Give the backbone structure.
Amino acid sequence: MTLADRVAIVTGAAKPDSIGHAVALGLAREGAHVAVADLYEAGFPGVTRALEATGRRCLAIRTDVADPRAAEALVSQVALAFGRIDVLVNAVGGSWGITPADLTAPPRRGFVGLTNCSPEDWRTILSVNLDGAFYCARAAAPHLRASGSGAIVNFASVAARKGIAPGSEGSSGPYAVAKAGIIALTKQLALELGPSGVRVNCVAPGVVLSGRARRLMAALGEERGPEGGRAVVPLGRFATVDEVAALVVALCTDETGYVTGATIDVNGASYSA
């Protein structure tokens, strides 16, 4: 097990059928103890059972990553419980809604761009997608430096590279901007943390068949979504959460020990920068 007895924090991992959930399970299967940070407390019993079934420890903590004090409290609690932090995966995020109620609410209809979004839209989407990754990384940095094999993986999106076309639904202009910021955040953190042996990388998925995406397609039809449907994907299908999670887990292991500052596309060749 390449991550035996290391300790990982995965944000946004409590929701079933999410990428974060798949990442947390993948890390546990590689031997890591995992702290799950999420606002979706209803998912805590399920994710705890799934992770503990691998023989690893799990700690589920209600956390609003958009609050810097909450991010600091999360890191302190994990460090106290496990004695170390080796991995941070910033998987929490959202393009149209962030709260636990959004798991069951229908997706917002209509195009949300930079010129027609409200200040509340802008602040909410940037806070959870970009600010949250910054707050968690800043809080975890001293522990990752002390680890000797620290790793951070952030999540961007194909939207960061090409934007969201007007008329698209299910995503937003602020989301594209936030995910572009994640790419820059990743590069800067890699430069600052590299001398301490901490690696920082980013994955940029296209459409992934999470529970959230399935609800979006059911409500809108995939042709109205932001990425244009399966027809624009050379592989002819969308990604599964497990396919994305496998890459994230690999980036947390020593086998990828010379990879840092990179943003890796996971989009079936549907877009290349």
Observations:
- The chain is about 40% helix and 15% strand.
- The radius of gyration is 17 Å.
- The first strand starts at residue 7 and ends at 11.
